[in-house]
Amino acid sequence: xxxxxxxxxxxxxxxxxxxxxxxxxxxxxxxxxxxxxxxxxxxxxxxxxxxxxxxxxxxxxxxxxxxxxxxxxxxxxxxxxxxxxxxxxxxxxxxxxxxxxxxxxxxxxxxxxxxxxxxxxxxxxxxxxxxxxxxxxxxxxxxxxxxxxxxxxxxxxxxxxxxxxxxxxxxxxxxxxxxxxxxxxxxxxxxxxxxxxxxxxxxxxxxxxxxxxxxxxxxxxxxxxxxxxxxxxxxxxxxxxxxxxxxxxxxxxxxxxxxxxxxxxxxxxxxxxxxxxxxxxxxxxxxxxxxxxxxxxxxxxxxxxxxxxxxxxxxxxxxxxxxxx
Amino acid sequence: xxxxxxxxxxxxxxxxxxxxxxxxxxxxxxxxxxxxxxxxxxxxxxxxxxxxxxxxxxxxxxxxxxxxxxxxxxxxxxxxxxxxxxxxxxxxxxxxxxxxxxxxxxxxxxxxxxxxxxxxxxxxxxxxxxxxxxxxxxxxxxxxxxxxxxxxxxxxxxxxxxxxxxxxxxxxxxxxxxxxxxxxxxxxxxxxxxxxxxxxxxxxxxxxxxxxxxxxxxxxxxxxxxxxxxxxxxxxxxxxxxxxxxxxxxxxxxxxxxxxxxxxxxxxxxxxxxxxxxxxxxxxxxxxxxxxxxxxxxxxxxxxxxxxxxxxxxxxxxxxxxxxx
Amino acid sequence: xxxxxxxxxxxxxxxxxxxxxxxxxxxxxxxxxxxxxxxxxxxxxxxxxxxxxxxxxxxxxxxxxxxxxxxxxxxxxxxxxxxxxxxxxxxxxxxxxxxxxxxxxxxxxxxxxxxxxxxxxxxxxxxxxxxxxxxxxxxxxxxxxxxxxxxxxxxxxxxxxxxxxxxxxxxxxxxxxxxxxxxxxxxxxxxxxxxxxxxxxxxxxxxxxxxxxxxxxxxxxxxxxxxxxxxxxxxxxxxxxxxxxxxxxxxxxxxxxxxxxxxxxxxxxxxxxxxxxxxxxxxxxxxxxxxxxxxxxxxxxxxxxxxxxxxxxxxxxxxxxxxxx
Amino acid sequence: xxxxxxxxxxxxxxxxxxxxxxxxxxxxxxxxxxxxxxxxxxxxxxxxxxxxxxxxxxxxxxxxxxxxxxxxxxxxxxxxxxxxxxxxxxxxxxxxxxxxxxxxxxxxxxxxxxxxxxxxxxxxxxxxxxxxxxxxxxxxxxxxxxxxxxxxxxxxxxxxxxxxxxxxxxxxxxxxxxxxxxxxxxxxxxxxxxxxxxxxxxxxxxxxxxxxxxxxxxxxxxxxxxxxxxxxxxxxxxxxxxxxxxxxxxxxxxxxxxxxxxxxxxxxxxxxxxxxxxxxxxxxxxxxxxxxxxxxxxxxxxxxxxxxxxxxxxxxxxxxxxxxx
Lengths: 325, 325, 325, 325
Fold this sequence. Notes:
Four copies of one chain form a homotetramer. By secondary structure, chain A is an alpha/beta fold.
């Protein structure tokens, strides 16, 4: 496994990490979760991404149980949670980053996990209805109380991240260290353009999600939505349009020969492509079976073969399918 | 229910809230308190205002018991207390905002409530004998120790609030977020004029009290002081003059036709009028019976009908009865 | 009793307070200590001064026991300790204000007192071998951890106090609030001259000690050292020279007619004189019998009679006996 | 024993201190450790140096047990640990000063020692892969939580130390107080030249290690590596070259007559030479037998005899053997 610094911080995360979004609870039971995490650990994965909102808290419970079952030394793994969506419709719980919500959300998350502290906590989305200063103070206080080690954001704009960092610098508070943006061959403008100055200026690290564009880059949906795929799950109808998008499917077809040349799957190619970006600290992958974890990890073997010429061919293949900022 | 941000903060409070001043203990027992709070909760009220000094601590005890009886999730309600008057004549307890008093007052309040933390704490009046810096530090330390989430002031001048905010900004301490001023058709100069620059400059929020001018705006006192009214309570003789003030009773009589036109009570009209002010985060209402709570809440239905023309007629009706700053 | 603000702070201390130096343990047992403190409390005294070094910790133990015996509400009294001399010869205990010493000294003092927190803590003397910044940080941390409420100095120079205040302002730490200097008719230059700018600039409060110049101002030593006086105690031989100093005894003889005119004792006159200084927050008095406490308190009745003309006569009486700075 | 301030701080450390590197666990059992520490204590030593990495944690356990066995008052001794090497190969444990590692490393160290707090904690080496700001914050938080009293560095460059100090000053955090460099007749450039401005500018204190250059300055290795010496221990083969270095052995031979003139051993002469440097707060010595401790302490008797002329002769003797910076 390759380990990368989380941005400018001293924390080392495995270049490939394991996220529990969707797959836990909805599709996974405790045994499968433990097997996936054991496979990930055996492959050298040390970062496990989670969020309060994944499966309404059940994902944190399953992961906490699996960590205990695996008898893993606390110092050796990095676990995250994210806060914003909230687990009820209350105006101070749903869609907020206010102090009241954040302080209890972390306590509740720790209880579900059965942990004393989280390694990383993320503001899961920006909240236009809470001043960034209030959120920065709450994040600082959580870290100051020993309940988390580092904090960051997810799907914030460059301006919002910079504002948070500046407030923390001015008031001598713990600064945001990382951002969790979507990043894949189709969605790349924010990471490559909008965030450009943040890497050098504030040392932003990235824990990117959706390397396979919700599965579109697996090639699984080239002939429609298979019955046993995530796209066919109840509640995921909103994904159909993007999964079957014509420009995207054309791009996937154009990528296939490159994967074949490298002797890898489309998924491995897409994941390896994310890893080429030096600002990416880790690519979060998902899996519902241990074998799938092992498959994903092979992207690391693809990485050294993915030279500039091949990357240029991949860019050309996707040219028409890249989302505007 | 409409929810508003508490000033610039991310905390959402119900536009109408429930205060326990006077009504608790003096007039209410535990069962009535619980019924009033249940009715308020059912109407969507999430903010419950209290103070150490209300019924000498008994008000906090009753409210704490009611919250437990209602088995309400802690994250879903916002509860306040206020400190300044003190519960004994000791020179470091009576009429002070010094560090010694504030630190033990909060602990004592939490014990009476049976809570781990308060959401809002107020400096109940300014204390000319304690430097504002000392009070700001004490408020910060209370929040830093997790015993409260936000702090503010009550009946402070614009200059005092601004001084507190500036000290907090300079020393990187938690800033005051809200002020609790008297605000009603008769008492409005401070909110509308003196505080004017504070809304944009520091994002001050208002939790206003006395929307009915101690009952004068209910119309109840037009023909003198009824025997079963608060004005007739022992210890409230000081209210008589204001309740029976000629200019005020004339104004109330002039407001009556407007209420009739809108098909609402004078009280509902007066409360709705307060809500028109966008700087008002919440209007604190009182009640000694659940039915009264329900009545008060109907002010929310009046609000959309209260257009600029009607508001101008209300201003005209009260013109002679508005207190000078 | 008159209560005065402790300098610019909001804490109110009784103009006359009770100190346990010398009298405890050496001369007093638990019963006498309790009786003296009860008499002081009955007279309205709310500040009880102490130090780690008084009777090697025994003074704190006796005072803590007396406070428990008197079942006094914690909010209603103000208790102090002081640190510097240390209770052993260890280089990090004896004569130091370093972080290591201060942090454990406070813990040890709280254990002896049986208290959760001290109201005031003093740096008992300046320590030229510890940077003032280290001492300020330790004082701040002690207050921040809730083990004390305010901190100050004793027998520090104006420059040292100002340096401590400036460091605290620059690093956003709790500032020194009070100084405990010697102050009496013979020793007054520091309080009246050296500290002059500190009162307005930083709001320094004074808790002055030795209002009777170790007893010289009682008149007790005019005819030598009586066998039952403190001056005759073993270990106080160093006092003899000052107690029998010719210029001082001449001054005491010249003050006697003024005391007689006012119908008070020399002690009461000397204590009242200290209280005339508006920068004095409290005058610390000692006593080994309850009756003596009552006697001392009568200085408060003398104060209003001590007009400028009488004070000028007192100055003249002492003119030759005032210590140089 | 002579006690020196740890740099500009108020902490006093014995000029000679006792370090447990190598000797503990590898060569020492619990009884020997206790005897060595008892001998050191009897000689007035109050500083005991340790590190997480010494004998993989066993050194801290043995020292903690010895301190308990000796029933030593906590205030009277100063104990250190150091963090960087880590006790496993995990990327967030091995060779790092990141927040995650430091916070748990201190907790683990306290558990091994059986102590509530450490006096001194050192960053055992600089970590180019963690921003100094992250390390400074972690050190501050550890001190702020009461788990250590002072922090410093070991084998950092002047620029790195200064950077850490500046960050702490800017963000109002606890500053580094001391550095633990190698310092002896052969390795002196950093202490004497590179650090020169730090003594006055930031008041850096030094706790120097290896006063005998891994034993070379004992004269023990003049005729090769004796079988019972540390140089013959398994795992210390890397030392051989330096121990047998020709220029060094020539220097040792040239120092011998000076030691003879002073009537002391070569070791005592080398240790005394370190103590001549006023920036050295303490020289850390090692021993595996109590008698050796006693021998080392005699360096203090040599110190007053070591005048400038003799020191110049020592410089001349070593001239060819001094390491370049």
